[in-house]
Amino acid sequence: MAGSALAFVPPMSDRAPVSALAALGGTTCLVTGGLGFIGSNLALALASAGATVRVVDALVPEHGGDRRNLASEAGIDVLVADLGHHCVAERVAGADVIFNVAGQVSHHASMTDPLRDLDLNVRSHLAFLETVRRVNPAARLVLTSTRQVYGRPETLPVTEDHPARPIDVNGIDKLACEQLHLLYGTAHDLRPTILRLTNVFGPRQNLLKDDLGALPVFVRRALNGEPIRLYGDGTQRRDCLHVDDVVAALTTAAVTDAAIGAVVNIGNTESWTLREIAETLVAAAAASGLASPIEMVPWPAELTRIDIGDFATDPGRAAGLLGWRPTMSLADAAADTVRFYRRNPWYLSST
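^ thats the sequence. predicted structure below, dont judge the formating
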């Protein structure tokens, strides 16, 4: 791993590589989308490591943000605002590290309301980059993107050199957002790193909105003992990560100078069929006496057109550049996720 530009302090957390979180202790970090799934886990990890944490989140109703995700940490400064609003400048000023985690993730919603996706994933981020350029261009900047930018894989596993050919509006807008961050790096001396995330699941994920990905739907149905419905024959392959491994990648990228200007896949070294993933979640939830049946259903026509087929990530660049590797097995990740939601049943309630 390259040397950090931030001062090292003693370890304070085990939620990410000790050196990364420890190096961020005593710094000021801004997390956009910090009331959502990945953002809230990141914000809590940073706070526990001794960082001063600021959060900006628009709390878009269709997304997964919820104030209760950070209810256990009263010291985090939260601003509810659009990412591109002028009031965000106050939070940007003085931040040592900016984790830009905000954005829409629904592929289906991007096809039914493409202008809304453009607004959330491109316009607001461009306005935010202008704020960073004007107020705090020296801040370290880490953007979360998605493996969806690759489209349908030509070869597996997918490296960063694979052509980026998105097949839905969300993928196109995410790719545009990446390019804007990189452009501001070369044209305005910002210091971005792009992390393309695979499927992520774990604590603090919204389980009630079906548009936020298949995995939270699987988790909800497994916890409730409801049928888990898989399109086709359930043999499509995916790699997935527990959110703690993603937090580790984000914090490590933030303290790795060699990653400035880089695009890095953050995915698992293994992949599984969707049926295997569903079965693992069902097994983890079965301790309560519930056992969800797994059912095969036909593909809806509107989803078939934007389906990417099998996907598996090659995270070799993350290992070489960041020294990052996933640490949690699928079974352990499923067990940890089930335990969290059993302890926090409000995630399964609409109130």
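Confidence is low (pLDDT under 50) at residues 1-16.
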